[in-house]
Design brief:
The chain has about 300 residues and is mainly alpha-helical. It has 13 helices and no strands. It is globular, with a radius of gyration of 19 Å.
Amino acid sequence: MKSRANGYVFALAAIVIFAIQDGISKHLGTLYPPVFVSMIRYWAFAAFAVALAARAQGGLKATIVTKRPVLQVLRGVLLPTQIVVVITAFTVVGLAHSQAILAATPLFVALLSMPLLGERVGWRRWAAISAGLIGVLLILKPQQGTFDTSFLLPLSAALMFAIYIITTRLVSRADSAMTSFFYTGIIGAVAISLVGPFFWTALAPTDWVWMLLLCVTGTSSHYFLIRAYDMLDAVAVQPLTYLQLVFASIMGVTIFGETLTTNMILGSILVVAAGIFTVWREHVVARRKAGLPPQ
């Protein structure tokens, strides 16, 4: 019981820190190129991944062994690209609106799991996915009769992260979670470092403090989330992650002066409800396939 309680504490801590990280990313992304901001952040993340791998069983020598090198490289390149798009979306579309669209990621995962993982989606999940996509359409609904193409930024980020999750599931069939985490950090840092220096910009002294905070929040949030998944099932953690949308909306309105529309609020409710049901249903189906009783 104490372990589960600690798991919820770690999960909530991770979510709060992720929200703070998003706010800092938006602040820095409005002042500096998102690629440059992402590169500095990723260097800290890579150092954290190496440190964790060194402490894992077998150390770095065991961690670097992978049976799916191509997929690991794909994942490693995909995530920093997605982070650049997300930071750009925060600055162009807004923190709250972007997070509302990113909340649809589990729905895209369920859709992509059919052609890419060969999974079967029953009518219950199809109903949830349909309701969630209606929510996305509400969020994207034009206010002045014309579609805002900037919404394609968070939408493409959600799709990219869904593909990242799918590839992570694929490599998990052959590699350990620590190996995948290690390659996410190392490959990602190498990939973004091939591009980021071309966008190098001198930081103001005060912004170095914000950049340091971004690196600290980026590593600590992942650490707390890892600890949460050590103690809780994904079906218990996933619903809590939607609190990030709530925190992002609060920050967007109070700090950055963003406006929440009725369509966005209603659409977000649909997306979150559909996402929670989809994750829960996947958990039920997985337990049934494993011959375990439902929880």
